[in-house]
TrEMBL record:
<comment type="similarity">
    <text>Belongs to the DNA mismatch repair MutL/HexB family.</text>
</comment>
<dbReference type="InterPro" id="IPR002099">
    <property type="entry name" value="MutL/Mlh/PMS"/>
</dbReference>
<feature type="domain" description="DNA mismatch repair protein S5">
    <location>
        <begin position="209"/>
        <end position="327"/>
    </location>
</feature>
<keyword id="KW-0540">Nuclease</keyword>
<dbReference type="Pfam" id="PF08676">
    <property type="entry name" value="MutL_C"/>
</dbReference>
<keyword id="KW-0234">DNA repair</keyword>
<dbReference type="InterPro" id="IPR036890">
    <property type="entry name" value="HATPase_C_sf"/>
</dbReference>
<dbReference type="InterPro" id="IPR038973">
    <property type="entry name" value="MutL/Mlh/Pms-like"/>
</dbReference>
<dbReference type="InterPro" id="IPR042120">
    <property type="entry name" value="MutL_C_dimsub"/>
</dbReference>
<keyword id="KW-0378">Hydrolase</keyword>
<dbReference type="Pfam" id="PF13589">
    <property type="entry name" value="HATPase_c_3"/>
</dbReference>
<keyword id="KW-0255">Endonuclease</keyword>
<dbReference type="InterPro" id="IPR014790">
    <property type="entry name" value="MutL_C"/>
</dbReference>
<protein>
    <recommendedName>
        <fullName>DNA mismatch repair protein MutL</fullName>
    </recommendedName>
</protein>
<feature type="domain" description="MutL C-terminal dimerisation">
    <location>
        <begin position="434"/>
        <end position="576"/>
    </location>
</feature>
<dbReference type="InterPro" id="IPR042121">
    <property type="entry name" value="MutL_C_regsub"/>
</dbReference>
<dbReference type="InterPro" id="IPR014721">
    <property type="entry name" value="Ribsml_uS5_D2-typ_fold_subgr"/>
</dbReference>
Length: 618
């Protein structure tokens, strides 16, 4: 029997590695920018076309490469970051495996231009599918420029699995934001299809956060700083009132490398305990500096998971540091039994000599029983002086007798209107719908077998959900135009999501148009929604959509209708009139699934007379 184990060709091995390293355009962008940072660049430009599917170009002013290094960087396991196995436990650079460039060159058309500071000419190399097409000297700026064209051109099955341009662009923005937060000292720009998405000058960490997410984040940040013998912790956490429904704005960096760690995330959430509403998550950007020998980052292909030697101590440090910062900046409520602050601020200290004894002025001739009436006094019904009525005789006093004569006929007509047979009166009462609101939360209605309780918020969510779903299918949403259009500024990730959802959002009744970078103008909202600001409504709609997408994996239109229904529905605690309760119940029973809430729980609960009798017989 012949031997069956053989070495794979380099082209096949590179494509297998590419499946782990490069899953989508965002993966390639991450590798290229991290290489530029490892090269010592302080200015990096990212240029994209078709969300990276047609072109991804990274230009930096780093150290550049020689002719030999330019060829070697496309070989597997060729790297300048480590030399021996022990170096794996002292890694400070972003890359160290030496697989990224070889993997990218195996599935794309790559052009590399690079020049070192001391060289007069640079090097230009073109590679397609791991094959070198050309290599020549060229004129180039110092640093490196790498262009990746037609990603997955030779693996069409992988290319077909790519999502739409807005979805892929959101993934690229996520990777770009992580690198930008980890390196605030680096000038970064991002251009997509000829438009500038980000322009981030070198700045402090807080300014970088504001540049990335918007000016309104300037008032949301609470600094965190802690130095111990195990780790050094620094960064910012968000104030509890600005917590969101999704986990999008949560960043952990270990030695400036972005990581995902549910254990450390739990430490931050524990510090916010009893300060956050249910199912909301705070913003945090936290940096952990730790000895590389005490961690292992070579446990996952994407390098986003790390193993620690002492996880429990790190957990306790993060939890206590965040909690102390929240208390230090008066975010958590405090009690001072020595002095009440609200009263202390009202007391203004004065010298003893300036204190004047208060005096009382009174009129000794005042008579409260005097019947004098000034001309300027205004007569108020039922508060007039009784003596004035005795002296003044009202005009047309004789007409009082005419009213007494008409009283008999009017009283007779009233009795005729009120006279209804007993059987007809019982029928009319039984046909009327009687509703009662319990604690402004439930609607109680009598039925033949007993009574039923309806959850008013869940019922309104079901009504709006089916209505919005029908409007999306028929494109029949009605818009209520705003008197003053409102401009809404979003972060880049939410703006890309909004552009993807814009046709369906307009079908719901929103009148929205783009207005500059990351800004839209809302000129109208759905007519079914009242008492909601355009800014909050749009942000809550996108937050709910992202939350449903990560948990339920819903269809886009179903997700959109569900998110808008939850945000626009009546909330618990709203008092309803009899007419409003009647209308709500009628609309609920006109739905296709009236007894099922959006979260899968029942909307209506019935209680029979037998159940009530059993309770009282106990």
């Amino acid at each position: 029997m012949p031997d069956i184990i053989q070495l794979l060709p380099d082209a096949v091995a590179n494509q297998i590695a590419a499946g782990e390293v490069v899953q989508r355009p965002a993966s390639a962008v991450k590798e290229l920018i991290e290489n530029a940072i490892d090269a010592g660049a302080d200015k990096i430009q990212l240029i994209l076309r078709d969300a990276g599917k047609s072109l991804m170009q990274v230009i930096d002013n780093g150290c550049g490469m020689s002719l030999t290094d330019a060829r070697m960087c496309f070989e597997r396991h060729a790297t300048s970051k480590i030399r021996k196995a022990e170096d794996l436990f002292a890694i400070r650079t972003m890359g160290f495996r030496g697989e990224a460039m070889a993997s990218i060159a195996a599935i794309a058309q790559v052009e590399l231009k690079t020049r070192r500071h001391e060289d007069e000419l640079g090097t230009c190399i073109q590679i397609e599918g791991s094959e070198v097409i050309s290599q020549e000297a060229c004129s180039a700026n110092f640093g490196t420029s790498i262009s990746i064209k037609n990603l997955f051109y030779n693996t069409p099955a992988r290319r077909n699995f790519l999502k739409s341009n807005p979805v892929e662009m959101r993934h690229i923005i996520d990777e770009f934001q992580r690198v930008a937060l980890a390196n605030p000292q680096v000038f970064l720009t991002l251009h997509h299809d000829g438009q500038e998405v980000y322009h981030l000058p070198a700045a402090a960490l807080k300014q970088r956060i504001v540049h990335l997410f918007g000016n309104n984040y300037n008032q949301r940040l609470v600094p965190v700083e802690e130095e111990t013998t195990i780790i050094n912790l620094r960064g910012f956490v968000g104030k509890p009132e600005f917590a969101r429904k999704t986990r999008g704005e949560q960043f952990f960096f270990v030695n400036n490398r972005f990581i995902k760690d549910a254990y450390l995330n739990h430490a931050v959430l524990t510090a916010f305990q009893e300060l956050l509403p249910d199912e909301t998550f705070p913003l945090y950007v936290l940096f952990i500096d730790i000895d590389p020998a005490k961690i292992d980052i070579n446990v996952h292909p994407t390098k986003t998971e790390i193993k620690y030697q002492d996880e429990k101590s790190i957990y306790a440090i993060i939890r206590s540091a965040v909690k102390r910062s929240l208390g230090k900046y008066n975010i958590t409520p405090t009690l001072d039994f020595d002095q009440e602050n609200s009263i202390g601020h009202l007391i203004t200290p004065k010298p003893f000599e300036e204190i004047i004894q208060p005096t009382i002025a009174f009129n000794p001739d005042f008579n409260p029983f005097a019947s004098e009436k000034k001309a300027s006094d205004r007569e108020i019904p039922f508060l007039r002086d009784t003596q004035s009525h005795q002296t003044a005789i009202p005009r047309n006093w004789d007409t009082l007798y005419e009213i007494s004569k008409k009283e008999e006929t009017l009283q007779h007509q009233m009795h005729e209107e009120a006279s209804i047979p007993v059987n007809e009166q019982e029928i009319s009462k039984s046909s009327e719908k009687q509703f009662f609101q319990v604690h402004n939360r439930f609607i109680l209605s009598q039925i033949k077998s007993g009574f039923m309780l309806i959850n008013q918020q869940a019922a309104h969510e079901r009504i709006l959900y089916e209505r919005f779903l029908q409007q999306l299918q028929n494109h029949s949403g009605v818009s209520q135009q705003s008197l003053f259009p409102q401009s809404v500024t979003l972060n880049s990730s939410d703006f890309e999501l909004l552009k993807e959802l814009l046709p369906d959002i307009r079908a719901l009744g929103f009148d929205i148009r783009e207005f500059g970078r990351n800004t839209v103008v809302v000129e109208g909202i759905p007519a079914d929604i009242t008492n909601a600001s355009e800014n909050e409504l749009l942000e809550q709609l996108l937050e709910g959509f992202k939350n449903n997408l990560s948990i339920l994996k819903l269809d886009k239109r179903d997700n959109l209708a569900r998110s808008l229904a939850r945000n626009a529905a009546l909330k618990t605690g709203v008092k309803l009139s009899m007419e409003e309760m009647n209308q709500l119940v009628d609309q609920l029973f006109a739905c296709q699934m009236p007894n099922l809430a959006l979260n899968g729980k029942p909307v209506i609960s019935t209680f029979t007379l037998n159940e009530l009798a059993e309770r009282f017989e106990k």
